[in-house]
Structure to design on (666 residues):
DNA sequence: CTGTTAGCGCTTTCAT
DNA sequence: ATGAAAGCGCTAACAG
């Protein structure tokens, strides 16, 4: 069915190793190249990645492991990463851990079995235990978005603490002294940092922070429930800080339902700047993460490991965030 | 590094072919099995899928090809499909065509190169040209959601025409005689069918259908723009039918912005029943697609092709939809 | 610059 | 029930 080197050999008379060189950038004289070229075209030949991988120990595939395929942040990141890697000939095997530690560990085993050459992941569990297996097989890993406590490897993250701080500063500058925070579990690295950055800044100015529906899922529904709970009860908050995209949307839906207008009744400071944000009116004031840059850097970090010999040490790239000022935050006396 | 059959041979004394049989369900006597079992455990052995694939012509991987990784419908489908296939040992290589025909074709080439054993796709282009390459390599394909005009293969779709009709019937029963439809390009199979099903039923009752912002992107932004455009101008529509998830959300955002309340000012009939829908109040009346069932059937269709010898003919499974009645549609005189 | 040779790790007749 | 041997398609010394 599929043509092999042998078929090319039959047509051109060249040996297998010469043909191999053709496909691996060796030095051949032009006439040889051309001959092979036409044979390749005639035969509609494509090198067999499996066979190549068996010999050269390169599967030309990498694993992408994320907690939730339903999170726009995750899929956006993976879309970019996948795109870059594919351009370089790697295929991406995507797994989601479905927000479950056990599933996450199984997924790593699965990827190891598939002989991925590297793994790019947004880790679910903060310990790093899920990646032990990858380490044992010496498969390079790059983290995006979250750090791990017991596992040292390359990572691309943002300064989450500072992002929280920036949100607080902005709200303070607008006169807010009492804010609710709609956050996911504080044990999740990003959530914890963002909250602490915010709370820290707020309290150091004598302002008050209340966690709305602590330890909620960080989903639209979670944000919705937390915000609904908080705002339907008596409260003094003049603003709400939502620490990711889904939580921001959920909060807005809750406010809509309660008939609370922003920024008139309560100011909203959101997180992430994606399609839906662009469509909400009044426009949202948010912290924007450089998702494309994060993806690109992570992909490049991995590619460097894959394509170079040993690289000493590990790199953690910390990127800054940007505030996008919309009109969802009111200035109060 | 990684243990091979040879290592097992060293520990147990059995020949490679016996060991191979162990891993492929041959008949071995219990003692032999046990011996191999312990060696496997000791060595932390895992069979090398690449090597196995080279010989047996099975890569144990399938390609998943979708138009847009940002569409919740697409990712949900692929999440389910991926889960089922992974349970059966297959890895899924996910590609998105980024809503571009050329990219879609390249993706098929890429998957073919990666020797996927099958492809499950939500096709972008309706012609089927993008899958010609797969056909040439005799790679079975299963379509989800959309049919192709010039390519016969297995497919799992819903009765889109009927779904549109059902929406129309419901609105008619509530007294609506003039409705706007927020739709994506009618050239897209699902969009065309849903619209025609709706329009057909509506007009056969002397009611009027207007396409809001014809040929918009079927994204949140597209729905938003189309609905905004339509409703900010003078119009007679008492209801709006949105033909997918993103369009539904976009429409709602537009209504919110215009200060139009549903169902008081205008009734909303949506499509797809996902997390965000659950959170919108008043609750939406929608057509629900059996996404999980679609995914499962598609995965099984493919698995059957992969694991059986030749199967004659091709199967198109058409599933029904369900209406979820919320309170977003008003009864009018 | 090109060819020879020996595998990569596993499967698969064909013997025994 | 187990083993010997050949080979999947490609790569990588090593010669020439």
């Amino acid at each position: 069915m599929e043509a092999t080197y042998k078929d090319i050999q039959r047509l051109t008379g060249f040996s297998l190793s010469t043909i191999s060189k053709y496909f691996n950038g060796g030095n051949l004289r032009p006439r040889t190249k051309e001959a092979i070229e036409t044979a390749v075209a005639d035969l509609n030949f494509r090198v067999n990645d499996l066979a190549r991988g068996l010999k050269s120990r390169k599967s030309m595939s990498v694993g992408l492991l994320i907690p939730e395929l339903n999170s726009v942040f995750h899929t956006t990141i993976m879309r970019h990463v996948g795109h870059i890697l594919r351009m370089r000939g790697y295929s991406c095997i995507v797994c989601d851990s479905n927000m479950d530690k056990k599933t996450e560990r199984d997924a790593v085993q699965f990827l190891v079995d598939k002989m991925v050459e590297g793994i790019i992941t947004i880790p679910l569990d903060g310990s790093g235990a899920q990646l032990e297996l990858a380490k044992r097989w010496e498969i390079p890993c790059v983290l995006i978005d979250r750090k791990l406590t017991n596992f040292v490897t390359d990572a691309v993250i943002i300064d989450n603490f500072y992002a929280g701080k920036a949100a607080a500063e902005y709200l303070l500058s607008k006169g807010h002294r009492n804010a609710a925070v709609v956050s996911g579990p504080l044990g999740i690295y990003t959530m914890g940092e963002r909250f602490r950055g915010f709370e820290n800044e707020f309290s150091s100015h004598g302002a008050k922070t209340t966690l709305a529906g602590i330890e909620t899922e960080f989903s639209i529904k979670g944000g919705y429930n937390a915000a609904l709970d908080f705002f339907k009860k008596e409260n003094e908050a003049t603003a709400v800080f939502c620490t990711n995209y889904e939580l921001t949307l959920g909060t807005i839906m809750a406010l809509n339902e309660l008939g609370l207008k922003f920024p008139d009744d309560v100011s909203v400071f959101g997180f992430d700047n994606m399609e839906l944000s662009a469509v909400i009116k009044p426009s949202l004031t948010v912290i924007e993460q450089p998702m494309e840059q994060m993806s690109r850097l992570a992909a490049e970090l991995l590619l460097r490991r894959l394509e170079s010999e040993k690289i000493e040490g590990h790199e953690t790239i910390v990127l800054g965030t940007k505030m996008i000022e919309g009109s969802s935050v009111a200035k109060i006396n």
